[in-house]
Amino acid sequence: MPRSIGRTAKAQRREGFCWAGPRPVASQTRCLRAFVPLRFLPLVLAVVAALALAACGYRAVYGERPPLRLHVKLVRTLIADVVASDEVAAGVREELARAGMLEGGDGYPRVEIEVLRASDASEGVAASAGPASRPVARATDVGIAGRAWVMTAPGAAPDSDTGDLRAAETIAVDEGPAGPDPRASAFHEADALRAAARRLGRTLAYKVTGEPAASDDGSE
Questions:
Q1: Whole-angstrom Cα distance, residue 146 to residue 88?
Q2: Which of 20, 22, 93, 156 is the most buried (most CB within 10 A)?
Q3: E strand or H helix at 169, and its extent?
Q4: Overall pTM > 0.70
Q5: How far is Cα 207 from Cα 220, in angstroms, rounded to an integer?
Q6: Would residue 29 be called left, alpha or beta, if left means φ above 0 and alpha means ψ between -120 and 50 degrees?
Q7: H or E stretch at 95
Q8: Which CATH number fits domain 71-208: 3.30.160.150, 2.60.40.10, 3.40.50.720, 3.30.930.10?
Q9: Distance between CA atoms of 213 and 206, rounded to whole angstroms?
Q10: How many Cβ atoms from other residues are within 10 Å of residue 55's Cβ?
């Protein structure tokens, strides 16, 4: 038999060994060695394995999921300061927008927000100015509490409920020559309440999207 014919027959047998149906892994590896230089063999094997996994429908358990886009709705407020309530919703929108999860307008799925209460408490004690010295608070803790959840459709069960969360700001007490100045304190307390409300909204957004967040009262 001429050498050219012999080489052709040998190549045909080798090709039939490699590609004529399924073979064990060891056999397929030997086949690839016959055709692929050794320095490229690991890369080729990795590509073949990736294609095989994709073809069989395999998906990683912890792979990236497409982000859910959410509308935002303030459904109930139990405090008198309407601006502070709106600040809570603004904080939720701000954080969802940062995460690429905000959907404008009304609709579903959406984050529903309930503002529960606003409160203030004294922090520290000091002697007041003026001739009639008396103990007064050195600072005021201004806080706001609320909760949020996700509604996927009208009438659906609430999902990702945050529970009650609180955010607070601490401000110094305004004092005049005769002692505490209630008018100046009222303005500063309103500003502090709205700042706390915006922070509460961001915390609620963290919780409904599954991010870790803590309330200012220490609860998780």
A1: 8
A2: 93
A3: strand 165-172
A4: no
A5: 9
A6: alpha
A7: helix 82-98
A8: 3.30.160.150
A9: 6
A10: 8
Q: What are phi and psi of 176, to 5 degrees?
A: -110, -170
Q: Give buried/exposed letters for 171-193 (b at 16+ CB in 10 A, else e).
A: bebbbeeebeeeeebeebbeebb
pLDDT score, position 33: 53
Could you identify the residue written with the tokens 């094997």? Answer: 45
AA letter at 37:
P
If the chain, 220 residues long, is cut into consecutive pieces of 10 residues, what is the mean pLDDT of each piece? 47 46 51 56 69 56 60 97 96 95 93 96 71 71 96 94 95 72 80 96 94 71
Phi then psi for residue 68, to 5 deg, are -80, 130
> Can you tell me which residue has the tokens 């490229």?
40
Place of tokens 């008018």: 183
- Phi, psi for 120 (deg, rounded to 5): -140, 150
Every domain of the chain and the residues it spans: 3-55, 71-208
Residue 86 to residue 215: CA distance in whole angstroms? 19
> Which residues lie across from 111 on neighbouring strands?
72, 150
Q: Which two tokens stand for residue 11?
A: 């190549």
Give the number of other CB atoms < 10 A from CB of residue 219: 10
The answer to whether the CB of 204 falls within 8 A of the CB of 113 is yes
